[in-house]
Structures are given as C-alpha cells and as structure tokens.
Amino acid sequence: IAGITQAPTSQILAAGRRMTLRCTQDMRHNAMYWYRQDLGLGLRLIHYSNTAGTTGKGEVPDGYSVSRANTDDFPLTLASAVPSQTSVYFCASSERNTGELFFGEGSRLTVL
Amino acid sequence: GQNIDQPTEMTATEGAIVQINCTYQTSGFNGLFWYQQHAGEAPTFLSYNVLDGLEEKGRFSSFLSRSKGYSYLLLKELQMKDSASYLCAVRDSNYQLIWGAGTKLIIKP
C-alpha cells in the first residue's frame, strides 16, 4: 500500500540520548515535512524539504536536524534529547503544487 | 503574527448538522485546508478552498470568505464516526501551512 511509513511508532528515551525518527514515502512526492503535535497546540513545522538534496527550517527547528539524501527518505534526528521534546511527531509529504499533505501514522516520543 | 482561531470543542447530536468555524490572520493567502484527525491517528485531508464560496463534497462542505479571513466546515447527517478533531490550516505567502489547534467534535447518540 502506497504511503508514508514512520518508525518507531513509540519510544521512551533518556534525556541526553541521540534519537533518529525514520520516515519513508513511496509516492515519489517532492516535498516532505516533519511536524510535532502537542496537546492544545496546532501542528508545528520542525523542518521541511522541497526536493531531494535541500532542507529548510520550520517554526521550531532548534534541537532537531534533518537530511534528504534521496526522494523517499527524510529522517529527523534529535542530537541530545530534552524533556520538552516529548511529543507526537508526524512526517508528511506532498506534491508541492497541490499542497495536500499525506501523513505518516506518527511517532510518540517520551523523553525522561 | 500569524494566527488561526477555531473553537476548542463542540458537541452535536447524531443525525444533526454542525458548523465548525475558522478565522485566520496570515502573511498572505494561498488556500485553506480542512483535515480530520481521529484520536491517536494521523490527520487526513478533507477539503481545500482557494476562492470564495462553498465547496461541497458529500456530507461535508467548506466555505471561504477571503475578505473576512473566515472559513467554516459544515458536516451534515452526523454519524458517530465523525467524532474527531477538525484542523484548519492556511497556506501563507511562502507556501507554508499555518495550523489551528483543532476543534474536537463530540457526537452524542
């Protein structure tokens, strides 16, 4: 089934540890995004990539990094996790012109 | 600053009609989206408006007034499965989506 796959689904992490959330899409979409969703707040953009080889900072990029080596993969790395990074993380993709986002199932991260 | 406002929570009865409002103030406007998100799941696309007026898609309709910075999502013949959060998002002049916090819709029998 075509779509976006995220891993892990859920993770508990000690503060200070490094963590990479994986995201893979098979729709050949140019644009990919990482959002975090916290209770009472809207989805907030962390980083995005309009095409393979390019990335950009979103609204809340501090403490996170991304890479886009190819069209399909867009991993999100927390270099040294902190409790405020406890959240649900969604990866999404789109064909830039339409703007409709397709979301992965989310990764629930808890930093203790 | 950029801002999207929508009610936090609404309650409606199965079979009835409900209107979820969204007002926005953004840097530029390149379309407004509505997404549905069931608890514990990912958001899924419902509708897109870029011109003023009403877009109808089955039981769901979405309205846009760009001059008023206003949109609503109208859900008819409510079903229990419509219990979800409804997210309003506006694409700004940089083609980035600005999201509202979402409206949690509770459907009662």
Description:
The complex is a heterodimer of chains A (112) and B (109). Chain A starts with a strand and ends with a strand. In chain A, strands 2, 4, 5, 6, 9, 10 and 11 form a seven-stranded mixed β-sheet that branches. A four-stranded antiparallel β-sheet of chain A has the order 1-3-8-7, with no helix packed on it. Chain A is built from no helices and eleven strands. In chain A, a hairpin with a 6-residue loop joins strand 5 and strand 6 (56-57). Chain A is 0% helix and 46% strand. By secondary structure, chain A is mainly β. Chain B is mostly beta strands. Helix content of chain B is 0%, strand content 57%. Chain B has no helices and eleven strands. The mean pLDDT of chain B is 95. The A-B interface holds A 40-45, 48, 58, 90, 96, 99-106 and B 4, 8, 30-31, 33, 35, 41-45, 48, 87, 89, 91, 95-102.
Show the helix and strand layout.
The complex is a heterodimer of chains A (112) and B (109).
Chain A: E1 4-7, E2 10-13, E3 19-25, E4 31-37, E5 44-49, E6 56-57, E7 64-66, E8 76-78, E9 87-94, E10 102-103, E11 107-111
Parallel strand pairs in A: 2-11
Antiparallel strand pairs in A: 1-3, 3-8, 4-5, 4-9, 5-6, 7-8, 9-10, 9-11
Chain B: E1 3-5, E2 9-13, E3 18-25, E4 32-37, E5 44-49, E6 53-57, E7 60-65, E8 70-75, E9 84-91, E10 97-99, E11 103-108
Parallel strand pairs in B: 2-11
Antiparallel strand pairs in B: 1-3, 3-8, 4-5, 4-9, 6-7, 7-8, 9-10, 9-11
Key terms for this structure?
heterodimer; A: 112 residues; mainly beta; 7-stranded mixed β-sheet; 4-stranded antiparallel β-sheet; 11 strands; 46% strand; B: 109 residues; 6-stranded mixed β-sheet; 5-stranded antiparallel β-sheet; 0% helix; globular
Entry summary:
The complex is a heterodimer of chains A (112) and B (109). Chain A has strands at residues 4-7, 10-13, 19-25, 31-37, 44-49, 56-57, 64-66, 76-78, 87-94, 102-103, 107-111.
